[in-house]
Amino acid sequence: MRKIKIQGDPKLQLRGKVKIGGAKNAVLPAIAASLLTKEKIKLRNVPLVTDVFTILTLTQELGAEYNLKKNSVTIQAKNIRSEEASYKLVRAMRASILVLGPLLARQGKAVVALPGGCAIGSRPIDLHIHGLEKLGASINLEHGYIKAEAKCLQGTEIEFEKKSVGATENLLMAASLSQGETVLKNCSLEPEVSCLCKLLVKMGAKIEGIGGETIHIKGVKELGGATHAIIPDRIEAGTFLVAAALTQGDVILTHTQPDHLSNFIERLRFSGAKIDKLNNYTLRVIGSYDIRPQDITTFSYPGFPTDLQAPFTVLMTQANGTSIITETIFDRRFSHVNELLRLGANIEVIVDKAIVKGQTHLSGAETIATDLRAAASLVLAGLIAKGETIINEAEHLDRGYERIEEKLRSLGANIQTLEE
Ligand code: EPZ
Hints:
Mean pLDDT: 96
Strand order of the largest sheet: 22-23-1-24
Bound molecules: ligand EPZ
Strand content: 25-35%
């Protein structure tokens, strides 16, 4: 089990340059999309994070072959050997559900373990299932598995009851190989969805309305190979922006995409950080000694990202006053709070709100990570906590951050990996 040790320093000032990697939440659907064709899919700017290895293993179990070289991967699913995504892999990563649409479209059959809940919420998949049933699939849930069959998928109009990134992505992939036209309404607007659409178009899909709430897909008989660059990870970028703001640092983020973070950057500027866009791919952030409190509410894109709620909460523990953080996307995304309390934070959770009282001086402690973004918040808190912080179950971090300790060390943090 991986452990991280941080020698915190309330006077730490992170300084230097950090290269942001490819987006985990864009590369996972892109790898799932490789199941839609017999041809090769080459992806560049791939983050080497455990979720990527998990989904590559899953595609391999289904019959694909892949070749991973540094931050590029070529995947080819010439033949699908099995249509079953096992519980073992789906439990390891709920995003495995993203193979449901491609398998159904390619093979007319898919058996995918129900992902179940996780540390941040119940994580239902009703929107995925209803959408695929509207395309003509017959779906049974039995013995913890989704058993889906469809002789051929028939395009139709589908309006999502609520915005769902994964359901939008599953339906985009399934509709690309359906007969006729599909209109998807109330689609998620996340940049990762647009990244998938652009890959599908390169593969020969006929998609209009990319980046909007209504997307038109004209199904085609076959999809071909493509080469595609994965967009930068806006959540990794946001995490480093908070790290610099928290430590009154002066950090330059390269290989990022500032326009994917507009709302978040505005909130950080309001808190006192100075953030300049040096060019379309580079941001400079200078932290302020006077951090202003503010109330934020998470929303689907382009609103405040739920994946940055936990990291931002740490910043608000250092603000001069009270902030109210409202989480509207997931029903249990405050598991980081209990651990932050042990570091000396003053936070009270009432239903969907965390009331954060600042400024509190944090002191190092032994902690335990519960999920990916909670783990990131513990690292951020450990940087400025007085004394030593240990983070147990730090493997959660590796799911979405490539070499985060190394990147933070290069900016001046005293953070070590303790292998156990
Ligand atoms: C994606 O998860 C991201 N994961 C999440 O990032 C991100 O927090 C989330 O979108 C934001 O919406 C990947 O892209 C791999 P949703 P996803 O479907 O697709 C409810 C991270 O830390 N819902 O958009 O699973 C759901 O319960 C991860 O990188 C239904 O009710 O999220 C939630 O309340 C965490 N029925 C809301 O919709 C469904 O069928 C948004 O979920 C599906 C979802």
